[in-house]
Amino acid sequence: MDHQGMIIRPPSEADSILLQVTLGCSHGKCAFCGAYQGKRFAIKDEATIRRDIEFAATYCRRQRHLFLCDGDALIIPQRKLLSILAEVREGLPWLTRIGTYASAKSLAMKSDAELRELKEAGIGIVYMGLESGDDAILAEMRKHGTAAAIIEQGRRAREAGFKLNVTVINGLGGAERSSRHAGATAQALTRMQPDQIGALSLMLVPGTELYARAERGEFVPLTVSGLLTEIREMLEGIELKRGLFLANHASNHLPLKVRLPSGKASALDALDAALAGLRR
């Protein structure tokens, strides 16, 4: 497979075929993100993508899921993306699901009819970064779009039939804005009603703008206790009719897999116990 640079994929796509159809991220300006450093955004050529599909047809016959890499494959123009999906279906007919990262920017560029076309063409799940529900934090982190815009595009994704996984970043507001970040993010997630929530803990990556701010003392990251307190406040404020809250990434200090709403109380108890242990 023609995997250029470091490949990023969601934890739930660990066993998927990773088909790299773009390089980097179409936004590429978030202050906290070091995922695609050194990669200039580009859409890969059809011949390279076709060879990778042919490779997967020979060597990846046990995998049932496929994930489109890199950061925002949905940004690919509709005709080209439909062509790629058609080749995937023809070459790998045993697949049961195709997933991709998406953004408010790329979703907004597709009409409702185009999103339904992509669902019918095989995309079953989209992963979208909210990061924070607080507009001031989003602006400071140079994230594209406001919370309201991201919520609206998440709603459109669900209405098109996609399963929606929304990522938030525990600790993104730093020590100064922790409670504000937790409360606003819980409200945004409640409004969006995603199928899954993926909560990652902030990791300061050398070479990023946020890392430099922290080195200068302009951003104070949360302690482990602060991160757990914030995730507890966030989880307590989320009201999903049905869904999963996942904090089982390698960055998380207390792995959580919570079915909402039924599992919220026991998860809050686990967080309380972990915080009590830190205070001993």
UniProtKB/TrEMBL annotation:
UniProt GO molecular function: catalytic activity; iron-sulfur cluster binding; metal ion binding
Entries under InterPro entries matching the protein: Aldolase_TIM (IPR013785), BchE-like (IPR051198), Elp3/MiaA/NifB-like_rSAM (IPR006638), rSAM (IPR007197), rSAM_sf (IPR058240)
Sorted UniProt keywords: Iron, Iron-sulfur, Metal-binding, S-adenosyl-L-methionine
Superkingdom assignment: Bacteria
Cofactor(s) of this protein: [4Fe-4S] cluster
A Pfam family reported for this protein in Swiss-Prot or TrEMBL: Radical_SAM
Annotated ranges, domain Radical SAM core: 9-244
Name of the molecule in the record: Radical SAM protein
The species this protein was found in: Pseudodesulfovibrio cashew
